[in-house]
Predict the structure.
Amino acid sequence: MRIVLGVGGGIAAYKSASLLRLFTEAGHTVQVVPTESSTRFVGIATWEALSGHPVSTSVFDAVDTVNHVRLGHEADLIVVAPATADLLARAAAGLASDLLTNTLLMARGPVFFAPAMHTEMWNHPATQANVAALRSRGAVVMEPASGRLTGKDSGPGRLPEPSEIFAAALAAAAPVGAAAGRLAGKTVTVTAGGTREPLDPVRFLGNRSSGKQGAAVAEAALAEGARVRLIAAHMEVPVPAGAELVQVETALELRDAVHQAAAETDILVMAAAVADFRPGELAENKIKKRDDGADPVITLVRNPDILAEAVQRRAELGSGPALIVGFAAETGDGTSSVLEYGRRKLERKGCDLLVLNQVGRSLVFGQDTTEVRILSPQDAPGTEPIAVAGTKAEIARHILDRIADELDAPLPSH
Ligand code: CTP
């Protein structure tokens, strides 16, 4: 592969020398494109010696070859490490102020950023907005590692180890033209996390969903070579590197994002915990305690059933995802078992597969291990699908295997 290694101006720039070596030892051709400020940490001579290619920071060197056009077009992968706050901001804004940012604008292949900066800079809303913008355009932005930073401070912001960047960057490049993976060439949309329904500017109704299962499904789909769009409500776990992120807050926002994505999605997996109700009114200002001591009354209204709507829209439009997968978390009670509730939900929602979880007080929410059964309308009556137990990553692989099996088998027409 032809890799462009962009190097930003941070103290961690020296670690990119090891990253460069990993790429070249694995047989890749690497063109290093440092920013001007990064050459204060590692000089051009070092990059030229290690890569075996001439190195420049400016579009005005080697003008005859129109370097940035050639570099951007020819690169099978662009890896920026370390990506400083400044570099992420320039990339997000689409600035073309040096050879590296010009190359990023000309990129045709996957673009990968490994950030490194102080924790405050990483957590700053400006940086987070830039990261979100880059991810929404399909770039992969790794989560920085946590630990001791340059000064006395510690927290998230360290450049991940070169070996981790190496593995994650190659994984990000894999879907392009990859024959590997059972879902190569397919687009998978996964919803994850818990929606938050605002009451007033500072309060919301939420739920305990951590987003772990949805994130694990997204990761497993990426590993199978799929293009993955993650529609994320509130999540407590990082977004898997390589997924295109659509951030939402409420059930209604999630609904819009799902219906918009459905037209260009082969597989829709509804792992999000969608609030069934939202406050009927959103107070413009913070709800205050009343002088007369009266308790406030919150009226709730039903949210749409997004999964059932997605199934219905597919039938109405005659197009949409080939496979729609729902999740159900059930406890069972004196009148019906978990399986009976699952079967009824499958029928009510009309989806193609339903991943049934048994939940209890300590089961499932926020936990790493779980047990599921996958129900299908094609199951023979009276049969009980086998229960599969494991970590959420193992369950996700099991779900993706089943999805790939269903796609391989001739599907009933919807
Ligand atoms: N779901 C949805 N829209 C909603 C509620 C749920 O799309 N308003 C989806 C979830 O993402 C999940 C599936 O429906 O894939 C089942 O969610 P669950 O909360 O178990 O179903 P409910 O319809 O809310 O059923 P219950 O009456 O048991 O709460």
Summary: The longest helix spans residues 392-408. The mean pLDDT is 90.
